[in-house]
Amino acid sequence: MTTDSGSTTIPLHLTDLRPTLTGAEMAAVLVPPRQFDTASFDSYRPDPDHASQAETLQKVRDFAGSFAPAKPAGFFSRKPRASDSKPGIYLDGGFGVGKTHLLAALWHAAPAPKFFGTFIEFTALVGALGYADTVKLLTGAKLIAIDEFELDDPGDTMMMTRLLADLVATGTRLAATSNTPPNALGEGRFAAQDFLREIQALSGRFDIIRIDGLDYRRRNIEGHAKSLSPAELDEKLGRLESDGSRFTVDAFDDLVQFLGSLHPSKYVKLLDGVDALVLTDVSELKNQTDALRLVAFIDRVYDAQLPVYASGLALDEVFAGDMMNGGYRKKYLRAASRLIASTQK
């Protein structure tokens, strides 16, 4: 590693990697992130100050119970409610309130076959396999769990509407999380009124459950993402080397430019075998396309539970003010929250 202290180990750069990912590999990783390997309903801790969390926990438990074989209807059996016919549930709430934990707990409770992925992972799967082969792969799934359900362009809107409709028609059940209610997806991002039919079709497939609360990642963390001085960063590099960690070192601007050369579906492969990320000379982003790529990348970094060590501007401040006030505000806030947590490790 070439550092100010004069060590000479050749650094590993993310920007030197060229990951590839086949459709089969993409499907194989459609499981909850590793921090949710043991997520269960019992391990979810509702915030007593927000009653909707305990209520949501019970509703998701009830939905999980719907996978049990139906009992013969008796004379005194209650009549089905209209909501019973909905094939999915949709957890709407702010970031850091435990939506992904509950989604993963539901996935663990559901029978196989089942798939769990972010919205971008499912759209990337269609891009890699084609629509017909994606439907063939997912047909027969008892549950499709979609985390971070956000529609950023009309093509994705129509494609996901069609995909979910085709899967529901074969008996698949759905569960999703998002920071945006289904009938508001796309607002401020594209001409949502032109695609109202598709958005309403998505909304009609879910029972919407609102979950409130504070971001658990920030309950005990104040301030900004941790930024290291050059001397502190050099010391951290030395410790990572002595620990035998496999880490990468990249200039922030170089990494942002490099991410533009990869499809976001490959970001997860980029992090294979990496124990920590080091970023130097972090600076504010001016281009929204770059900012959204960074958000997608940080989601994968956070899922992998990788620590991030950085110098320069605090990473949660890289999104320019006009970005934070636009249609992608919630995405940037989620990324900032995850960056704060990742730099505190």
Describe this structure in words.
- There is one protein chain.
- By secondary structure, the chain is α/β, with parallel strands linked by helices.
- Helix content is about 40%, strand content about 15%.
- The protein has 13 helices and eight strands.
- The longest helix has 16 residues, at about 290-305.
- It is globular.
- Residues about 1-10, about 75-85 and about 185-195 have low confidence and may be disordered.
- Keywords: ATP-binding, Cell cycle, Cell division, Nucleotide-binding.
- GO terms for molecular function: ATP binding; ATP hydrolysis activity.
- One of its GO terms (biological process) is cell division.
